[in-house]
């Protein structure tokens, strides 16, 4: 539907898009009356619902642009534009109400098909299956209460499982912490043992060097003692051997005075 209202290019574009959606909605609802299959009707109604959402968004854009241009237009023009906005909103609300009517109709059709066709398509024993439409209000309430009790029991079981899981997790965390502390102590002990082994190795090396030095000294002293004993033995066996030098303290005393007298006597006379 064309309009002669003075609009800016932005408003005119938005207004045209809204009118296009209204025409699509009108055609869609006309097609909806001709569709007999409830599933196809539901699909068509979903498409129309999407178009209504787009129309609502465009009306918001129209209102926003209208407020931005309100200071530029005369009061009478602003009034006409606001009236047009209200008209767009009313028309959209009419389609929304029509959508609700069709949704109720389609829902009733599906329920009727379910009531009439469920037993024929999948027959089941009356002792095991009872349709909701054939149940009284008290039976529905009892069934609902039973379902709620079963749900509460399932929730309680879930809570117990969660509680047990939390306890197991707490115990596992405590065990892991204790094992972590134990591993830390083991690492510290290993460090101490490694340090002790290093100190012991150094001490063994020092003791080895000291023992080697002591052995060398003992060997040298042993050789000296052996040499002294050998000289003593040879001196005792061959006392007149001039090739063996006298050992201090073992040689016989020398008559020094007599020799001195024999040497100095002639010179005095």
Automatic annotation (TrEMBL):
It is a single-pass type IV membrane protein. CDD domains: SNARE_SNAP25N_23N_29N_SEC9N (cd15861). One of its GO terms (cellular component) is endoplasmic reticulum membrane. Residues 145-207 form the T-SNARE coiled-coil homology domain. The keyword Coiled coil applies. GO terms for biological process: protein transport; vesicle fusion. It is found in: Membrane. Keywords: Coiled coil, Membrane, Protein transport, Transmembrane, Transmembrane helix, Transport. The chain crosses the membrane at residues 217-237. Belongs to the novel plant SNARE family. This is t-SNARE coiled-coil homology domain-containing protein. It comes from Acacia crassicarpa. The lineage of its organism: Eukaryota, Viridiplantae, Streptophyta, Embryophyta, Tracheophyta.
